[in-house]
Amino acid sequence: MRGNYKQFSKNFKKIFNFAKKLVENHKQNLDGGEESRDYIDEFLRQASIDKKANKMDSTFDMDQLVTSITNLFIGGTETTSTTLRWAFIFMIENPDILKKCQSEIDEYIESANISTEMIQMTDKPFLPYLQATILEIQRCANIATLGGSTMHRNLQATTLAGYNIPKDTYIAANFFSVHVDGRSFPDPDKFDPTRFLSEDFKSVQRHPAYIPFSIGKKSCPGEALANMELFLFISNFIRRYNFYVPNQKSQINSKSFYTTSLTRAPYDYQISFINRNDNNNNNNNKIPVAA
Ligand code: HEM
């Protein structure tokens, strides 16, 4: 999230008020059926159970609910969209890798005789190179540099790797350093999806130092959703389109064309999407990145 703090607080309040309205609407329209329609229904249901049981230490109160919804919106929107904006930059910079992903998708769709319009989650296991490319996009994008700016505080004094950490210290994990550490990722500046592939290139191997969503009990609760979103968006985009930089003087690049605030995000940019089946494009002033 870029811009100054005032703008951030203004946007935060807008989302907070929107969440409050959502909760009010749900309260008025609770349908009373067996099934909860969504997270808010389920939360309200539990709050009402706790209230009836006179449970004094219940955490199911309205402040918690509105704050949780706000967090889900804030945590769940810019993170995924920023990763997608990085994805296009890495694909523009690495046309051979884009082409390999497209070939893998084309071959899979042809061999499996898939008639579906859209690539779906069930197709994911058959596209290991694409999966590895998405992992590499996240490693190199490194959007949550300091844990996505979420701070943690230790409730008791402790020691870690020989360092004394007093009670109540604010701690931010430096994920950036982990993802560019040559001991874990040799030649870390190189965009290389094969670092996540098995020796025969047929399956994806998770790497213990790969932690874009953090680790432990406080790791990102949206990881599964984000992984689905990234796979579906990226696979369907690159299946259908090639990407072009419309302006040859464009400054778009992964090494310096970004700013770091709550997330590490590319500056705004323009690229053109050209349908891969469209042979009638006039490419005179465009830089082709994949045939
Ligand atoms: C590429 C996408 C995403 C990345 C890289 C990402 C990364 C992270 C990281 C590093 C944290 C901090 C964890 C910690 O404190 O140790 C976090 C927290 C969080 N994320 Fe995500 N996230 C992503 C997508 C999402 C999505 C889609 C949602 C929800 C719909 C979400 C919801 C949250 C929430 C609510 C927290 C705060 C959790 C807490 O304080 O307990 N995130 N995320």
TrEMBL record:
Xref: InterPro entries: Cyt_P450, Cyt_P450_CS, Cyt_P450_E_grp-I, Cyt_P450_sf, Cytochrome_P450_fam2
Listed Pfam families: p450
Co-factor(s): heme
GO molecular function, one term: iron ion binding
BP GO terms, sorted: organic acid metabolic process; xenobiotic metabolic process
Record: residues binding heme: 220
Keyword annotations of the record: Heme, Iron, Metal-binding, Monooxygenase, Oxidoreductase
PROSITE patterns according to UniProt: CYTOCHROME_P450 (PS00086)
Gene Ontology terms: cellular component: cytoplasm
Similarity comment: family membership: Belongs to the cytochrome P450 family.
Official protein name in the record: Cytochrome P450
